[in-house]
Design brief:
Layout (H helix, E strand, L loop, with lengths): L1 H5 L25 H17 L29 H26 L3 H4 L4 H11 L10 H31 L10 H18 L13 H12 L12 H12 L6 H10 L20 H21 L16 H27 L6
Length: 349
C-alpha cells in the first residue's frame, strides 16, 4: 500500500520541461541529464537548419504533453493528440486496476471478458445501431473479425474431433482377452471353492485331453536361438529329421559291406579315389529329398502381398525393408511428430 500511495499523484508542475522527451509522463521530473540533452538537441537543430529558417514560427499548435514538444518547429497533428489521449487513458486504467487490487475487489477480473464473451459481443454488434454508423473501412474490418472468429471456432472443433479419432477405441465386438481370462478365473475359483480346493489345485479340474495337450506342450523342446542354430547338436538333430522319412534297404547295405572290406575306410587306406557303385534309385531318392527341402525353404520365406492402400515411403525393396525395421524400432516414438507434420498443427493437450 505504501508504494501505491507514493505514486498516486503526478509530479508537481514546473519540474518537467516541455521540451523534454519524457514530458508526456506526468510522473517524470527533469534532472541535469534532461536539461543537457535538451540543450544539445537545440544546438544540433540550429546547426542543421539554414539561416533563413532558424527563427521559430510565431503561431504554432503544440501540446505540452507531446513527445516532440521540445522541437520548436514541430506542430501537433491528429496523430499526436491521439497518442496523448491513449497514454492518458492507459494511465487511468492502470490507476483503477491498482486501486481495485489494493481494495481486494474482483472488478479487474470482470473487466477482461474471455474469448467467448468477446465473440458474442462482436456477433451481437452487427445487429446494433453502431454498425450502421461505421465507415466502410470499419465495416470491412468488423466483417473480417467475424470471419476470423468463425474460422478459429471451426479449426478448434476439427482439432478436437481429430484428437478423439486418434484415441484408442474400446472393444467394438466380442470380449477382450483380459476380460475373458478374468471371467474364467472367477468360474474356476467358484468350482474350487465348492470342492474345498484352493487355486494351487486348479489342475485337478482338467480333463484327460486337456492334461495330455499340456504335457505334450511342455515336453516340446524350444527352437534353437542365436548361435545355437549352428552348433553340432542342432545340426545332428536336423540330419536325423531329414533321414527319418528316407527308406533304407538294409539287405543291400549289408551285401555291399561284405563285398568291400574297406567299406568304412580309415586314414591308412590305400583305396584313394575309389568310390563304390551307388544304385540309380538311391541317387533319385537323394535328389528328391533335396528338392523337397528347397521347396520347404521357399514356402517358409514366402513373398508378402503388396498393399495398395499403404503410403509409399521407399524407392526399392531394400529401402522398404530398412524402413520397416526403423518403424518397428522407433515408430511409436515418432508417430505423434509425423502426424503433426502431416496435419500442420499439434493437437491440444
Amino acid at each position: 500500500m505504501g508504494k501505491v500511495d507514493a505514486v498516486a499523484g503526478p509530479a508537481a508542475e514546473g519540474k518537467s520541461q516541455p521540451a523534454c522527451i519524457n514530458s508526456s509522463n506526468p510522473y517524470h521530473e527533469c534532472s541535469d541529464y534532461c536539461l543537457r540533452k535538451i540543450a544539445e538537441a537545440r544546438q544540433r537543430l540550429d546547426a542543421e537548419l539554414p539561416e533563413s529558417s532558424k527563427l521559430p514560427p510565431e503561431d504554432r499548435t503544440v501540446h505540452p504533453d507531446c513527445i516532440n514538444a521540445f522541437n520548436p518547429y514541430h506542430e501537433c497533428s491528429e496523430y499526436c493528440f491521439k497518442r496523448i489521449a491513449d497514454a492518458k487513458s492507459g494511465l487511468e486504467r492502470g490507476e483503477q486496476q491498482t486501486a481495485d487490487i489494493a481494495a481486494g475487489t474482483s472488478d479487474a477480473v470482470e473487466q477482461q471478458p474471455d474469448d467467448d464473451d468477446a465473440d458474442k459481443q462482436e456477433d451481437a454488434g452487427a445487429d446494433d445501431d453502431g454498425y450502421a454508423q461505421m465507415t466502410e473501412k470499419q465495416k470491412k474490418l468488423f466483417e473480417l473479425r467475424l470471419k476470423m472468429n468463425e474460422a478459429r471456432k471451426a479449426n478448434q472443433q476439427a482439432i478436437v474431433a481429430e484428437k478423439k479419432r486418434m484415441e484408442p477405441r474400446g472393444e467394438s465386438r466380442g470380449v477382450s482377452k483380459q476380460k475373458w481370462l478374468e471371467d474364467r478365473k472367477k468360474k474356476i475359483g467358484k468350482l474350487l471353492d465348492s470342492n474345498g480346493l484352493d487355486m494351487s489345485k486348479a489342475y485337478m479340474l482338467d480333463t484327460q485331453e486337456t492334461a495330455e495337450a499340456k504335457y505334450k506342450k511342455w515336453e516340446k523342446e524350444p527352437a534353437p536361438y542365436g548361435w545355437d542354430v549352428f552348433n553340432q547338436k542342432t545340426l545332428y538333430d536336423a540330419y536325423k529329421k531329414r533321414t527319418k522319412n528316407i527308406e533304407v534297404d538294409m539287405e543291400a547295405y549289408n551285401k555291399t559291406k561284405e563285398v568291400d572290406p574297406e567299406f568304412y575306410r580309415d586314414a591308412s587306406s590305400l583305396q584313394y579315389g575309389k568310390v563304390s557303385k551307388v544304385p540309380e534309385e538311391n541317387i533319385d531318392k537323394m535328389v528328391k529329398e533335396l528338392k523337397e527341402r528347397e521347396e520347404k525353404r521357399k514356402s517358409f520365406s514366402r513373398r508378402r502381398k503388396f498393399n495398395e492402400d499403404k503410403d509409399i515411403d521407399s524407392i526399392n525393396d531394400r529401402n522398404e525393408h530398412f524402413n520397416k525395421k526403423i518403424e518397428r524400432a522407433f515408430g511409436k516414438y515418432t508417430l505423434e511428430i509425423k502426424n503433426n507434420l502431416e496435419r500442420g498443427t499439434a493437437l491440444p493437450d
